[in-house]
């Protein structure tokens, strides 16, 4: 049974959802044995619908394994003891067409992948990692979906960079390009009260970026949002826990050593949340350079920028 508030939808799944719900019905009758992955102290059963991928089942399981390793690298261990990933093949299509993660027992992700998808496309894809990041934060009511999706949007590329599967320059180039989408628009009433796509995903991600920098500034770069999220998870705050947002933020602040999440939430929940992004990029040493960005090692917060994507010791 899927409970209210348990449905997570990635940045790409709004239009794909109807297809996803139909395609995954064929999984049980596919006759294919699941593949079990053991990563980061967790077990992931990968189940396949009827169909044949150009990259083979090994190519799909390698993609899922890379995502699980990225999430394990970021959190220190896989967020749940057991998870199921149901892969629905789409005939004559290429690409990943969306995923949904549920707080069932065990946690379950349904994801659609075109049968013609190449290995290169899978290596470049963010969707599976985004979905697995959802496993590492408590289940929230609808008004707080911005923090669930914001964390998944922000953590996904950082986890991949820390695991060595995404270039650091790509992380910051994408953030430089996409973070402005999270700035409040006309009629914005704060993160809890504004439920459009941009606020839910990029407003939440902008909250996470600012919190990360704030933690690091206030702790002498010793701790950041990663420490806060690890602390929440270590207290049992995974996808199968129904927590108030205040409890999650208090646990995160305690772990990271500063009341950043609690204070920031008080400012942003009911009023438009905006930060001076040009100034933040300048302090972090990130500037536009043609179609990409350049990263200055001499900027005021260059060491913080480097610490955010550095592999944990």
Total number of domains = 2
Q: Count of helical segments?
A: 12
Distance from first to last alpha carbon? 40 Å
Q: Which structural class best describes the helix and strand composition? A: alpha/beta
Mean pLDDT: 91
Fraction of residues in helix: 40-55%
Low-confidence stretches: 1-26
Tell me the Rg in angstroms: 19 Å
Global outline: globular
Strand content: 5-15%
Query: If strands are numbered along the chain, what order do they take across the biggest sheet?
Result: 1-5-6-4-3-2
Sheet with the most strands, sense and barrel status: 6 strands, mixed
User: How many distinct beta strands?
Assistant: 8
Helix and strand sequence: EHEEHEEEHHHHHHHHHEEH
Question: What do you see in this structure?
Answer:
The protein has 313 residues and is an alpha/beta fold. The protein has two domains: 8-136, no CATH class; 144-309, no CATH class. The chain has twelve helices and eight strands. The chain has helices spanning 17-23, 56-75, 119-124, 127-133, 145-162, 168-178, 197-218, 225-234, 245-256, 260-268, 277-284, 302-309, and strands at 8-9, 35-39, 42-48, 82-90, 96-102, 107-114, 286-289, 292-295. The strands form two sheets. It has a six-stranded mixed sheet, sandwiched between helices. Strand 3 (42-48), helix 2 (56-75) and strand 4 (82-90) form a beta-alpha-beta unit. The longest helix is centred in the middle third of the chain and has 22 residues, at 197-218.
